[in-house]
Amino acid sequence: MTRKEILQLLDVYFAALKAERVEDLPFTHDITFEGPMVGAVHGETEVRKLVVEVARTFQNMELKVLGHVIDDHEVCTRAEMILPSGKVVALLDYFRFNDGKISHIQPYFDPRPMDEIWAFAQK
Fold it and tell me: Is 89 within 8 Å of 83 (Cβ atoms)?
């Protein structure tokens, strides 16, 4: 994938989260999501279920994408999540791509402040 194609795919990803349109997310069938609050989730169906919950939380906060570091089919996206309380949480999303789709997502952030909006992860 070219840099331009990757950036377009990331724009689709973040816009779909904000609009709660997870059906628009271009995932591989064997995608993996590994997060600090939910552990590892495997497969397109299970990751979409999780991302539905994550997308709901984006309605309660602001996400500011600060930039991307792209190396072939791997990307790190630096962002800030601004919680309803005004607290800013630094976020680094690591992505891998395969055949024009997202094959791996791994967010890195301090989960402690997220309790106020991500209660679903504590089920």
Answer: yes
pLDDT tens digits for 21-73? 888 899 999 999 998 878 899 999 999 999 888 777 777 788 899 999 999 99
Those residues with Cβ within 8 angstroms of residue 16's Cβ, 6 or more apart along the chain or in another chain: 22, 24, 25, 55
Identify the residue whose tokens are 């301090």: 110
For residue 8, report the phi and psi dihedrals to the nearest 5 degrees.
Answer: -65, -40
Beta bridge partners of 75: 70, 95
Fold of 3-112: Nuclear Transport Factor 2; Chain: A, (3.10.450)
Nearest to 105 by CA among 23, 38, 24: 38
pLDDT, tens digit, 9 for 90 and up, residues 66-118: 999 999 999 999 999 888 888 898 999 999 999 999 999 999 988 777 766 66
